[in-house]
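Predict the structure of IclR family transcriptional regulator.
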Amino acid sequence: MTTPKAPAADATLRLLTFLASRRSPVPAARIAEQLALPRSRTYDLLTTLVQHGYVMHLEQERLYGLGPAAQELSGAYLRQEPLARIGRRVIEAMVDEVGESGHLAVLHGRDVLYVIEERARNRPSLVTDVGVRISAHLTASGRAILAELPPAQLRALFGTREDFTSRTATPGPESPKDLRELLTRVRADGVAHESGEVTEELASVAAVVHDHAGWPVAAVALTFEEARTSQAVQERCTSAVRAAAEEIARRLGGRRPETPVTGG
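Done. Here is the predicted structure for IclR family transcriptional regulator.
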């Protein structure tokens, strides 16, 4: 094995790569063991990465996982290749088939970031334009992704009442307990819903996209005027987002996780 010319950079990248391969945060001792690093050096690297936001430290559990800065890099990659390119044609076909506006979003910290927006003809404009960020707990796309996260990561993102916000007069979940109960229903249904919590009179349904590691990398959603949309069309939207999410995952080489996520 070739000796790296920049040992500190090599150790840092190996550490981030290891965390990215885990489905949930891990203790520092396991990181040191797996990477064959001295514990003191491991803690020094972790401290620096935490300061810069690339790693998050769950102090109560004494665990470490990827932080929002690392997710931002991942989101930037996904906005360019391959997710946006692969997803665009699938979203366009879904919108043409159903006649309702659709979008593709990724998780960005506590928010969802919209990377594709396709508005159907004669449908109202949406706030979910490309580049817009909205708190994940309010959106169908965000709920679809959050439902697949490990419990420790969900607690790190939405662990207190102060982490919850609202946009309209229709309240979303307002506490960690509310969110856990909602996400339990999402996992049971296989799709996520929101009704008037992002924009009054509009509702959405979304399904999660898994990557090659079984990670919830994105979500596909359709948005419609709830009062003017028949139950049959709403059910058609549900089927359409499921199919679109599965198609994008197939093109990404994605798969469902071997161990289903449970509430925590």
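The longest helix spans residues 231-252.
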